């Protein structure tokens, strides 16, 4: 989902 | 992973290494704000709780551990290492950093994507990271002689934020549904805080003079 994509960042 | 993000992460890593080099090798933390370092330790401790709940990649987990470990060891060094602690500019580093923590916590409770424990803490870490550099910038302004390593540390940190913005622009155009307003706005605020510093840093570099911020 889209909010998971932000959390792959540091 | 795109080139901007990798460059951003490496710049962030370089900033931490520069700071550790100064503290570990030269045994000095002159010009370094303990308040900012404590805020970063809180930022990473609250953001990286997902180490226990989700796995993205070995790279992701390793980097998280590096940033957690380095931020806490810098704080411990500055507080408890005899020689390092003696070089700490305690009288100058007077920013009330707890006054940043509470508003960020309240804002995270009000503005978030999902109202869950981890999500609110994650959002809090984004807001707090945006303003965590403030005590350091104030201390730089008060310090007469900013040494090269301290200047480079702040320059690299600002560079890391700038590269993350390029990374978001890239991801917005290459990944469908990549829209994250909370991350973007707090990231933009954070980068703008460095604008003034960048200006004086480039001036001192251009004129080959020692970096000094106007009071």
Mean pLDDT of chain B: 96
Shape descriptor of chain B: globular
Order of helices and strands of chain B: HHHHHHHHHH
Structural class of chain B comes to mainly alpha
GO biological process, one term (chain B): vesicle-mediated transport
Family (chain B): Belongs to the ERD2 family.
GO molecular function, one term (chain B): ER retention sequence binding
Membrane topology (chain B): Multi-pass membrane protein
Secondary-structure blueprint:
The complex is a heterodimer of chains A (10) and B (215).
Chain A: H1 2-7
Chain B: H1 3-25, H2 34-47, H3 58-80, H4 82-86, H5 98-110, H6 117-131, H7 134-142, H8 148-174, H9 181-192, H10 195-206
Helix pairs in contact in B: 1-3, 1-8, 2-3, 2-6, 5-6, 6-9, 8-9
Organism (chain B): Capsella rubella
Pfam families (chain B): ER_lumen_recept
Protein name (chain B): ER lumen protein-retaining receptor
Any overview of this molecule?
Chain B: The chain crosses the membrane at residues 55-77, 98-115, 121-140, 152-170, 182-201. Chain B: It is found in: Endoplasmic reticulum membrane. Chain B: It is a multi-pass membrane protein. Chain B: Belongs to the ERD2 family. The complex is a heterodimer of chains A (10) and B (215). Chain A is an all-alpha fold and 10 residues long. Chain A has one helix at residues 2-7. The longest helix of chain A has 6 residues, at 2-7. The mean pLDDT of chain A is 70. With 215 residues, chain B is mostly helical. Chain B has one domain. In chain B, 71% of the residues lie in helices and 0% in strands. Chain B is built from ten helices and no strands. In chain B, helix 6 runs parallel beside helix 9 and helix 8 packs antiparallel against helix 9 (181-192). The longest helix of chain B is centred in the C-terminal third of the chain and has 27 residues, at 148-174. The A-B interface holds A 2-10 and B 5, 9, 12, 50, 54, 56-57, 60, 63-64, 67, 113-114, 122, 164, 167, 171, 175, 177-180, 183.
